[in-house]
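Quick start: what a row looks like.
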Amino acid sequence: MKKPEVYKYNDYREFLKDWLDFKKSSQSNFSIRGLSQKAGIATGYINMVLTKKRNITNKALDKLLPHLKLQPTEVNFLRELIEFNDSSKHNLKIKSLNKMNQYKYYRENSSELNVLQTYIKNWHYVTIREIMESSNKKLSAKDIYKKLKFKVNINEIEEVLDFLTKNNLNNSDNIRAEHQESLRVSMSHFHQDMLNKAVDSIYITERESRFINAHVIGLDKKNYEKAKDILQDALEEIIKMSESSDNKNDNKTIYNFSVLGFPLTEKGE
């Protein structure tokens, strides 16, 4: 078993698991208990980190690093990866992901992820692909330009078409990823763009062709979770309508359906 390379990971826990497996395979007397004792870490702490019952602290990481035997740049990358995985603040996740992308070896080992991030965070990439999938004929960049309500430069449309073809993203079955956390961060750009489009549509789209509704209510945590389930179920039913209809139909209009719920006050006691 080869020693794992930290740049190949998007989850530091997966890196630590593989590193521990490597040590066990290369040293017959190696154990997590023994490592914990040598590092001065409480017995059971590493397992709690690996099972997501605890996040690794800087203090514990500093004690563990001498045993990982990483290069200084690898240590810096690992710190950013931990911040990316464990931070509860979205802006810090974006900051860490941007720093991770500055490492050449990470970029080289994350080509699929980079493609998916580019696709997901740009509203027009997603929309143009949906236009292409909905058409029963080959469309040119000019054809797509005419269909778009929110205009995009024709040259940029051609770049998107090349991107979709080059990366085989014209087929929805090929849009799969194990990099869920990284993709969720990229989705924030997409959501922001679509929310801006929703605001614009209030003024440029006739009422009959759009649906925007909202209600301000008070809910406890239990009912809030129920409300999320209701919204998710509704969205999935709408998706099924699209999947069951004629996939190739030039009379289709491409819509964005979004569901949202967010607090207007601080959390209740």
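That is the whole record. The radius of gyration is 23 Å. The CA atoms of residues 40 and 63 lie 7 Å apart.
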